[in-house]
Amino acid sequence: MAEKISIVYIGPKAEKKDTVCGTRLKFKRFEPVSVESDIASRFLDFPEVWVKEAQLEGVKARQEAIAKLEEKERLEAEEAAKRAEADANMVVIVDGEEVDLGKYSSKQLDTFVVAHELEVEGPKKPVNDYRKNVRDAFRALTSEEGNEE
Known about the structure:
alpha+beta, two-stranded antiparallel sheet, 4 helices, 7 strands
């Protein structure tokens, strides 16, 4: 009688049917199954799918660490996208109405600055940078006014 080895399915699915050896075995994720050693060696040729039972804890720890890292990267990417969207948004709320500073020329921006008594730092050229400075100054002014009330 052939020696048996306990192997474990570590892939992403909850259950895996044997498509390698044709044994019709079903493997549940992280549950050891004893198979004959010659068949086990064929399964173990795919180390991202099956491992020996003794390796299971290390594999679980590695997969959890990878999942945490991927989640962290996903959250950072979402935050970066939100920041980029907020940076690209030139809309400000003036007396309850939305005003898109992205459509304003440099002369219109100058008028906006004077009308709202803004202190804008930085040069007026290039106009896109000036727009951002005007937007940021206006948002800072309205947030200060909101805190005073």
